[in-house]
Amino acid sequence: MRLSVEHVTTYRYDPPVRGVVQSHRLVPTECLNQTVIGDWVVEVSGGIAGAPFKDGAGDMIRGWSLRGPVQEVQVTVRGVVETRDQAGVLRGLREGIPPLAWLGETAPTAPNPALRDLAAAGVGVDGLALAHDLARLVAEAITWTPGCTDAATTAAEALALGHGVCQDHAHALICAARLRDLPARYVSGYLFAEGASGEAAHAWAEVWIEGLGWVGFDPANRCCPDERYIRLGCGMDAEAAAPIRGVARGVAAESMQIAVAVGQRQQ
Amino acid sequence: MLSRTADNLYWLARYMERAETAARLLDVGSRIAMLPNSEQGYRNEWEALLRAGGSADAFARRYGDPVQRNIESHLFFDHDNPSSVVSSITRARENGRIVRTALTTQVWDALNTAFQELRQIERAPRSSQSLSKLTEWTMQHAAMVRGAIDATLLRNDGWDFLNLGYVLERADSTARLLDVKYYVLLPNVSFVGSGLDNYQWRTLLRAMSLHRAFHWAYGGEVTAHKIADFLILNSQTPRGLRPCVQAMTFHLERLGQAYGKPSGAQQAAQALRAQIDAITIERVFDEGLHEFLTRFIREVSDLGQTIHDSYLSGDMR
Amino acid sequence: MTTYFNEMMDKGAVRAPYAQLQGWVEQMPAELRNLKQAEAEALFRRIGITFAVYGEGGDPDRLIPFDMFPRVFAAQEWFRLERGIKQRARALNAFLADVYDRGEIVRAGRIPARLVYLNEAYEKAVAGFRPPKGVFSHIVGIDLVRTGPDDFFVLEDNCRTPSGVSYMLENREIMMRMFPELFASNRIQPVEAYPEILRRTLASVAPKKCPGEPNIVILTPGHFNSAYYEHSFLADMMGVELVEGQDLFVEGEHVWMRTTEGPRRVDVIYRRIDDAFLDPLCFRPDSMLGVPGLMDIYRSGGVSICSAPGAGVADDKAVYTFVPEMVRFYLGEEPILQNVPTWQCAKADERKYVLEHLGDLVVKEVHGSGGYGMLVGPKSTKAEIETFRAKITDDPDNYIAQPTLALSTVPTFVDEGVAPRHVDLRPYCLVGERIELVPGGLTRVALREGSLVVNSSQGGGVKDTWVLAE
Q1: CA dist., res. B285 & res. B279, Å (int)
Q2: Rounded-to-integer distance, Cα C378 and Cα C134, Å
Q3: Averaged pLDDT, A214-243
Q4: Rounded to whole angstroms, how far apart are CA atoms C328 and B80?
Q5: Spatial distance between the Cα atoms of A70 and A11, rounded to a whole number of angstroms
Q6: Chain-chain contact of C293 with A56 (C-beta, under 8 angstroms)
Q7: CB distance C296–A246 less than 8 Å?
Q8: Inter-residue contact C296 to A61 (CB < 8 Å)
Q9: In sequence order, what E strands does C326-408 have?
């Protein structure tokens, strides 16, 4: 499937700040599941680009900085990606971090008794079946409901609430999988969302299945990523995998607006 | 040099100068206390001096009565009074400790010795310390730090930032001291020529350790014009406004040359200097002494801000 | 009754390295001694060397007791130590380069994968990144104890930012000022080249993007840090800037420092702050100490960070057990320095042994430091031992145990004259293009009679450490 992306994020600072530094994970992962067609453009209004590099997880990272005073920063991502359904399996990504390293825990993915119960309830003849079952349990335990959780909500909180969005689903599944000794990580990307839950800026989880590799699970849509998904990068949790991370120098109120459109390209 | 290092040096100097100012005020305060003065006059004098240091309200809140022990506590020992000797020296030494490597052993030694001795003074029983000893001690150590800077420090940009700190603080404190007493120098005030008048002038000069210098420089009858001229325009007065401004331009010019590029600070200092070079004492009185001083204090403060923005904030390109 | 190796007196005779000191101490009248001790203290206080070593915390203006009686190594003794220390530093760096690359040692089953990859100090952010010259730990501090003429044991490795080296230098400086005659009569190898070698080491790992002479800085958490004096001392001795996070910023492909003349590029950062505080964008978002964006510049080759982020995975107390294995695996050599046998309380059979022998063992917390949270069995009461029994049973993963080592003693000035006191040693090995070690280190001494705890927070002091020329 050929998908086009137009993703604009605007940050505003009041009063203007003395400088801004950002770290971007905004380039589609180089793997068999997807190929960038033509130029993939990342523009930062008034920004000075750092040198791009590939990190241990195989993500393309690039730093940006802006000299102050900064009142507004606009990050624009534009491009076309050819995607291929790989039945949820991430194929052909070169990475340097051993799967085992994805077993640790972070604050948003820390277990509590309820998450332990959920993890213990999962059944499966092998890792793959177990991961599918855990994804099902998470989807059943957390109803997709936008607006009731925020970026700081933990897996435990979302589970207690029984409602959440893709970030909460992914966090809960990551926690449960790790509890069952399955390495798991948070993936951020885009979704061509015709009739699907979630917005075009999307997130899901990947679970390491011995013999198969990293397999994506999207509990929010009760499926595995297919050709509607574009993968940008991964991390231990949402914050670590965030497409844009930034710090402003100075004290100001920050507001952010995101507009993402993922469409299907006619061929 | 690192902008933060320059900032620390600049503030080291400002705090040392501030400690000295506090000690001078203390000295004057104690003299007032010794005079057989009317209750009201004594209180007014004292409050005027505290206002010069910017801490009259804090003093009233905390201590109430301006008796000697309270004055001493406030101006020397009080950690909550940011302008006290203890606060100023502690902060000066802390700034020095941060930039230890930008100082010579002698400068650090002078600074650290002052700080260590200060801790002993704080621990010793108050009854064992006379006020004159405390003020002398402060002046002496301020002079030792100053002397070590002059005698041993490389004449590099760090030296300029130290000196800028000294002269900006000094200009500010002299102008403030003058300002709270400005009415004494107004020619048309009714008690001119009275005993009180003379005594107030003496207080003012003594607060800057300039009472003897004044007589050497001017001689003859003491007049308001002479005193104003001495403290504002005379190039020879150690704590006078004009020498301070001259020193500001001198050190900023050096910085501009050393760095091969001027900043807004040179221009601002030149403007200030042109003004004080051109003005006469008559024009000062025409403008109004208080108005002139208020403007001067603001301009010095603006220059401080410009120096901060240009060199100390780290935003220089 | 344990017998302790006395480094000066062996079987009633003075050992050769201490021969000159015998007369020196005998001829020193008590008054002179007191005078010199006071002089030393005044010197330390004047130069402002008041700080805690090894992250012990405490009053930043505290003075660590300095004992004037030096600790002496013969050239031959040092020669062997030096080989052992360098060997260990090489193995530790090989291990780091390996676990952030293909992890051959893990694949070979020589060290458990979980111990490495689930270690708190393992940094995913640098996996696959190879720092200049492949060096991760540029300053390796190895804590050693001695139990006999030829018996040295490594207590722990410090691969991140070992502190205390300023003591090594200042102790020597003060000894030379106070007892010049000693330096005339003994042929003591100088340590004063350390800052120069450190500077050279740091310069040798400058990034490829640095065209000429690299600009080196020391990054300190700030003047409230207990080791601030050391940071500023080293900066001064090397002639480099001492910076805080706020003095640096990233722009384009480089890191810059804020100066009064405008931005100046920074090529090598000798950091004295922990990984977690380096970059709020990459690690702890709440950190105010670091430089936002620093890790992006680092990983794209714009700046070198010493020690490399992630170096801590080599000096963990549990990984420590495997260092001899690293020496064999990477270097194909037998370890010259021995490890102290260590029981992991996490393992049931070893825990059983530990609980049965608590009275004879030293028990430590896996992540503890500074001699706190530690049980010295033979020196403890029944109640203290029982408290630890409960702690270990409660949280076995958090504890390791080691036999009580008979730490050697060195004569030390005490109120009654001179008496033996227990010591340890921390030499500082520098790893860059070359591996170098100055002949000396920091000797810590337990000033309390019979005490085996040398930490300054618990009655420890420091001594000048001499290595004699051949």
Answers
A1: 11
A2: 44
A3: 95
A4: 62
A5: 10
A6: no
A7: no
A8: yes
A9: 338-339, 343-344, 361-365, 375-376, 399-403
Distance from CA of C285 to the nearest CA of A (A): 9
What phi and psi values does residue B81 have, to the nearest 5 degrees? Answer: -90, 110
- State yes or no: pLDDT of C87 exceeds 80: yes
The tens digit of pLDDT for each residue in A171-181 reads: 999 999 999 99
Any idea which residue has 């006071």 for tokens?
C38
Taking CB atoms and an 8 Å cutoff, what residues of chain B touch C257? Answer: 2
Assign C58 a pLDDT band (cuts: 50, 70, 90).
very low
Contacts of A53 in chain C (CB under 8 A): 296, 299-301
Among the partner residues C48, C243, C247, nearest to B97 by beta-carbon distance: C48
* B146 to B14, B111, B197: CA distances (angstroms): 12, 10, 34
Mean pLDDT of chain A: 93
Output phi, psi for A36, to 5 deg: -75, 135
For residue B293, give the amino acid letter. L
pLDDT band of B50, cuts 50, 70, 90: confident
Chain C: touching chains (3 or more CB pairs < 8 Å):
A, B
Task: Give A 14-33 residues with CB within 8 A of chain C.
Answer: 19, 21-23
Global pTM reads 0.91
On chain C, the residues whose CB falls within 8 A of the CB of A186 are none
Helix B157-180 and helix B39-52: axis angle, to 10°? 150
Backbone φ and ψ for A257, nearest 5 degrees, come out as: -130, 135
Distance CA A168, CA A155 (A): 6
> How many CA atoms are closer than 13 Å to the CA of B25, on its beta-carbon side?
33
Nearest Cα to Cα of residue A177 among A240, A230, A233, A124: A124
Query: Would strands C304-306 and C268-271 be described as parallel, antiparallel, or unpaired?
Result: parallel
Interface test with A, best of C251, C278, C284, C291 (most A CBs within 10 A): C251
Task: Evaluate whether A124 touches A215 at the Cβ level (below 8 Å).
Answer: no
Alpha carbon distance B231, B222 (integer Å): 13
Contact B298/C at CB under 8 A: no
Residues 174-213 of A with CB under 8 A from C: none
Q: Which one-letter amino acid corresponds to residue B96? A: G
